[in-house]
Amino acid sequence: MTTSSSPPLVALDVPSTPTARRVRLGIADTAALTRRDLLIWLRNPAFIFFTIIQPVMFVLLFRYVFGGAIPVTGPYVDFLMPGIIAQSAAFASFGTAIALARQLQKGVIDRFRAMPMARSAVLLGRLVADTARLVVTLLVILGVGYAVGFRFNDGAVPALLMMVLGVAFGVTICTVSAYVGLAIKDEESVGSFGLVWLFPLTFVSSAFVPVTKMPGWLQAFAKNQPVTVVIDEMRNLALGGPLALHAWQSAVWLIGIAAVFIPLAVRAYRRAT
Predict the structure, then answer these.
(1) Which among 83, 55, 258, 241 is positioned nearest to 153, based on CA atoms?
(2) CA proximity to 133, closest of 85, 167, 177
(3) Domain locations in the chain?
């Protein structure tokens, strides 16, 4: 009786991918998913319409219906537009949460995981696409604002910085929405939850009325929440005013929110099924 011996197993030394190559592949994957998300948006005219029509309606309603009843220093439309831009940037984050929840429900994210691609590309591609969509939305709103009388009073550079701050604010809120969409997972629940936390933050702020016009017990919250801080800085950039205080406060809030919710979103993505 003969016995056959199996050949010894030899461990293969598979070279690891250089870091620079991994970064290049990750950027390429992110660009591919960004393009995919933008094509979905561009090929859905109804989505484009409803993305833009709501902030335009807010501009017209507050400019011509409520504006005459709200006393402010100077033209109300100049006071209003930085608030509308910040609010629209925040509300645009609904799309991030709903899209990620929908992808989870339909198994799209599971298919992405099975593909040889950078795991970070799913979240980064979504955020980059939403940033591009946000820029388009804010430019349309600014155009409507100019049509109804809004003007920058402090030059081109502060005007550009105001728009950059509005986009940065919107992208920061998108990180919160990304976590919400991946954590809750249900598309309808995500849409309802967005109203619960975004509406109080945007309306109990300096977006539409001066904080000093609110009841005293509400002013403490309104003055010290991130939406008011960012809007006050945007307003000072647009109309001229002291920038130092609200500039560093805005930076602290935005960096702090991103530092908390980016890791939470990544963790929720890894655990999502």
Answers:
(1) 241
(2) 167
(3) 26-271
Dig out the tokens for 170 from the structure. 């919107």
Tokens 């002291």 correspond to 242
Listed in sequence order, the residues at least 6 apart from 57 whose beta carbon sits closer than 8 Å to its beta carbon are none
> Rounded to an integer, what distance in angstroms lies between the CA atom of residue 246 and that of residue 54?
28
In single-letter form, the type of residue at position 233 comes to E
Q: Cα(106)–Cα(230) distance, rounded to whole angstroms?
A: 36
Residues 231 and 206: beta-carbon distance below 8 Å: yes
d(CA 215, CA 218): 5
Of 96, 225, 238, 224, nearest in space to 165 by CA: 238
| Tokens 């591919």 found at | 32
Two tokens at 257? Answer: 């929110």
Backbone angles phi, psi at 204, to 5 degrees: -90, 65
Q: Is the pTM of this model over 0.90?
A: no
Phi/psi at 26 (5° precision): -65, -40
Tokens 């997972």 — which residue?
A: 185
Q: Alpha helices of 185-243 — where are they, by DSSP H?
A: 187-203, 216-223, 226-239
Sites in the chain below the pLDDT cut of 70? 1-17, 244-245, 273
Query: Shortest CA distance to 211 belongs to which of 83, 75, 107, 89?
Result: 83
Where would I find the beta strands (DSSP E) of 29-81?
Answer: none
Q: pLDDT tens, 7-64?
A: 555 444 445 567 777 778 778 888 888 898 888 888 877 777 777 888 888 888 888 8
